[in-house]
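[job 4471] stage=fold_predict status=RUNNING
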Amino acid sequence: MRWPYFIFFQFLLIAVVGTLVYLHKDKVVMLKTPPASLAQWYKPENKRQVWLHNMFKLRRELQAVRLYANNQDAGHLQQWAADLSEHYLKIGEMVPEWERKLDKKLIDGLLQSASNMHYQEVIEALDELNNNCDSCHADYRVVTQLVYRAADFSSVKVPGSSISFKDGMKDLTAKINLIKIASDDGQPGVALAAMTSLQKEVSALGETCVNCHEKNKKEFPDSAINATFGKLKQSLLTGTAKEQGQELGTLAVLACAQCHGTHRMAYEARNLFVEKRSWRELMKH
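[job 4471] inference complete, writing structure tokens
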């Protein structure tokens, strides 16, 4: 009699978990995370973006094989098909966990069709191979880009201090809000002091940009931001509340929102996958 009870409780447990997941379906997103072995082919563990370069080669080879199959150019077709096979199989060598995802029979058939100049069969094999690639990309590409290509600010400090980059960003936000509060309440002295402090901190912040933008050095703050600081200062001294609000809004877009649109969203999304969650947090959600 014990086994029927055991099986019953197992089904009951599965039903409860399934019900909870379904009831929270609007709060749950199902994503797969890539194997840890993939990290060795991305910066900073590797000096070059080796995985990306292999993907770029595959994309180019897929196009070339289709081109020469359509043109019935046997010589070039066989050359590019061989390269495609090499870099396709390299996926399993680089990430052993993905070896089973490779359709080796399909790639062998493509090579055989290319060798026999069966051009239509090559194209059909390419279509199937593309579906194979798309399936894996649907599971992993977005998460992989976030984890390995989004900028990581977790270890960055505010220049000249031990303050974390995250806390430094909060302080900048507080300064912008203080300018607006003081402006609305007719306290130009407080607003000007906050703006002066903000300008110094924004200038210091620019020193961190060159750490990533080495080859194409990004000037921050640029001339447009500096000019807006000048206009904001003048409006706080002599302008109307509307003018002060407009200049502050322009500054917030130029100095904050433009970078946040690229870096903040990607960084915070990345943290969803790399930060460890406690059982308490998981149960809470």
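[job 4471] summary: The chain has a mean pLDDT of 87.
[job 4471] exit 0
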